[in-house]
Amino acid sequence: MRERLLAAERVKALEWREGLLHVLDQRLLPARETWLALDSAGAVAEAIRERAVCGASVVGIAAAYGLVLGLRARLAAGGDWQAALEADFQHLRDAQPGSAYLDWALTCLRNRLRRLAPGEDPQAALEAEAGSILASDREANLAIAQFGLELLRRHDEGVHAVLTHGNAGALASGGFGSALGVIRAGALDGLVEQVFVGEGRPWLQGSRLTAWELHGDGVPTTVCVDAAVGHVMKSERIGWLIVGAERIAANGDVAAAIGTYPLTVLAMHHGLRVMVAAPSACIDLGLEHGDDLSLEERAASEVLDPANGIGVLNPVLDVTPADLIDVIVTERGVIERPDAAKLAGLMCRKRLH
After folding, report:
1. N or C, which terminus of the chain has less Cβ within 10 Å?
2. Neighbour order of strands in the sheet with 283-284
3. What is the pLDDT of residue 56?
4. What is this structure's pTM?
């Protein structure tokens, strides 16, 4: 399966070349494929904040390269570059609050700087570390796809339609994606013949991004407006709800794209299995419960004209309790019916990076 997935690789969210970070501007998809060349930590932070680059893993990878760009500028300016670089760390971290992968990636780079040997080139060291994070995420996606495919095979009851929400595909990662990696593997294996995609308001990640990715892969895809997903579960034969995650708490609660929580409630009622597919870097053992997480809210202008004086609730994520999740799939392995003990045990296993 690995070879078949690699042969089908088509979409890239970002590339590091000629000393610049090039990102595919997700705001313009699917109408136009436009690449942005980012040359500073500030430009990368803005691209994350404005959702030109968006997704659990890809924001962390982008932030890592943003710090590489920041270090280059700090070294050129002279003086105490380590102290000056702290501002770039914070600027990039603040670009997307709540992203566990972003925090993890920046911590990896901070730790690499602390391990510099006498006389070692910090620029080369940091660039290599960012490249390692990108490569390991691609490998993690492939492992997640294989683990997820094994679950689809094990629970195959002849129902080969799945539902997904948000975007957890190639655009959100360094490879094939987490949730969409599983779906892509299932499609190649004949176990996914139809994908229903939630619209994903207000940014429409499902209808703009996920549907675009799947359609390009030749996977039969149907976009359903968010208010219709309960009707779809009731009227269609769907076996799985497969979603990604931004952060997974120590007890197995999952923070994911807004709208995921009510979908899992509906899935339980209609007999769908719920799979959360995410790299283990999204697991935060320091977060005891998902409800302890401070959830980011976006601007009211994304939903309504703020001049009309009507209040707007526009959160980016919601939290799904662990007891609504059948299985969490990571590159380290699979946890069925997640709880604190199982999450802790999983994180003791070897990671890819």
Report:
1. N
2. 283-284, 247-249, 254-257, 317-320
3. 87
4. 0.93
